[in-house]
């Protein structure tokens, strides 16, 4: 893994210290990251899920996009996924719900993988 990816993993572990962070290196210097048991909101069942993403070798010069969560997650109101969420999507040999929240103004001097994950969690909870 590149030093930047390793640093991002350390930041994720610190920011989400109450959660298990699973790391699987990938061949180009990036890593597949899964953060477990994240609270995604009472409007979902279950109300917690893992969220995963590829932290590419280009990091921090590339957005962390897309993100994924467990395909077992459903809306409690029974409605279909809205804008920004789609399922089923296969990611890293898992059936998932894809979370499409692109940062069009990604700034590597300010934006981090940890802050991106926090923003995505806040967005999920706001739906």
Overview of this structure, please?
This protein has 127 residues and is of the alpha+beta class. It is built from 2 helices and 8 strands. A hairpin with a 2-residue loop joins strand 7 and strand 8. The longest helix is centred in the C-terminal third of the chain and has 14 residues. The chain starts with a helix and ends with a helix.
Topology:
Elements: H1 3-15, E1 21-25, E2 31-39, E3 44-45, E4 48-55, E5 67-70, E6 74-75, E7 85-91, E8 94-99, H2 113-126
Antiparallel strand pairs: 1-2, 2-4, 3-6, 4-5, 5-8, 7-8
Concise account of the structure shown:
By secondary structure, the protein is an alpha+beta fold. It has helices spanning 3-15, 113-126, and strands spanning 21-25, 31-39, 44-45, 48-55, 67-70, 74-75, 85-91, 94-99.
Q: Give a quick account of the main beta sheet: strands, pairing sense, barrel closure.
A: 6 strands, antiparallel
Order of helices and strands: HEEEEEEEEH
Can you list the strand order of the major beta sheet? 1-2-4-5-8-7
Average predicted confidence as pLDDT: 97
Gap between N and C termini: 35 Å
The total of beta strands comes to: 8
**If you compute it from the alpha carbons, what radius of gyration comes out, rounded to the nearest whole angstrom?**
14 Å
Q: How does the overall form come out from the CA principal axes?
A: globular
Oligomer: single chain
Helix/strand class = alpha+beta
Number of distinct helices:
2
Range of helix content: 10-25%
Q: Can you tell me the residue ranges where pLDDT is under 50 for at least 5 consecutive residues?
A: none
What proportion strand? 25-35%
């Amino acid at each position: 893994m590149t030093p930047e990816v390793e640093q991002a993993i350390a930041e994720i572990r610190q920011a989400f210290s109450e959660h298990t962070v699973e790391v699987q290196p990938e061949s180009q210097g990036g890593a597949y990251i899964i953060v477990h048991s994240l609270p995604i909101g009472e409007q979902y069942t279950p109300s917690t899920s893992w969220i995963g993403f590829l932290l590419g070798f280009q990091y921090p010069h590339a957005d962390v996009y897309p993100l994924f969560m467990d395909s077992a997650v459903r809306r409690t109101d029974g409605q279909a996924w809205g804008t920004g969420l789609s399922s089923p999507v296969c990611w890293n040999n898992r059936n998932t719900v894809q979370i499409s929240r692109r940062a069009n103004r990604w700034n590597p001097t300010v934006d981090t993988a940890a802050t991106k994950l926090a923003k995505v969690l806040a967005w999920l909870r706001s739906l």
